[in-house]
Design a protein that fits this description.
Elements (H helix, E strand, L loop, with lengths): L4 H8 L5 E10 L5 E9 L7 H6 L5
Protein name: AMP-binding enzyme C-terminal domain-containing protein
Pfam family, one: AMP-binding_C
Organism: Orchesella dallaii
């Protein structure tokens, strides 16, 4: 099952602390793909370490 970067962005943007997100799909020569993302948090959430760690994922 393939998931587009846009689908992942919409899920991440559902979180109230997220202001902006950019997800980039990267082709994997062995098949499938990987992704990378950049997230901009709302000002009041920027110093919450648990939230920063929550979104450090590989997919």
């Amino acid at each position: 099952m393939l998931i587009s970067p846009t689908e992942i962005e919409s899920i991440i943007l559902d979180h109230p602390a997220i202001r902006e997100v950019c997800v980039i799909g990267i082709s994997d020569p062995k098949g499938g793909g990987k992704g990378a993302h950049a997230i901009n948090l709302h000002r009041f959430h920027r110093n919450q370490k648990w939230l920063k760690n929550l979104f450090v994922v590989t997919f």
